[in-house]
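Explain my protein.
***
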Amino acid sequence: MLKTKGMRFPIDVILVCIRWYAAYPLSYRHLEEMMEERGVVVDHSSINRWAIRFLPLLEKAFRKHKRPDSGSWRMDETYIKVKGTWKYLYRAVDKEGNTVDFLSTAKRDKWAVKRFFNKAMQAHGVPEKVTMDKSGANKAAINEINAGKDIPIMVRQVKYLNNVVEQDHRAIKRVTKPMLNFKSFRSAKHILAGIELMHLIRKSQLMMEGTDEMTFADQFYALAGKIRPV
């Protein structure tokens, strides 16, 4: 189970706070009020530190228990505001709508797209097909990736086929909206990893013994139990 050496709050309080924050459209101040109603006095800044520290650990642990995806990907990027500036979240889902992978980047260019595909392929293997929009950066990146392959990835640039991933962005943006504006790119990356984690669990992509009979919350706590003490 996740350990919190040096912290004055028990782990169950910390897990409840970060689960609610990453799973629902709530601000840190909302959570501060909600916890106070339950007899727990915790400052919103503490919840922020917990989320940044522990959500990436949970997302990393999830990757060891992720259900396999199909070889047909739908890839697209969406926008996230950090300190008043737009940054980017590259995402891919398979043809069933299951999340393949994601990557937060400061820029929207060929190198960012290649980083995303390299990360996704390292974890999930090379896809048979990729559907994307007609962005020049996307096409340039996939062309370079295909140049080094005996069997190239089939690329489709058909807008209506990408509706699956475009609709899937909404679940992420719904949660980030009350957050208003991330204060740093680092914190944005860590929080977005937690939001994506919750979305993955909701889509039944956690593969552990007994998860098919567990609630959304219980799956999250079962995953937390797999993390080595920190």
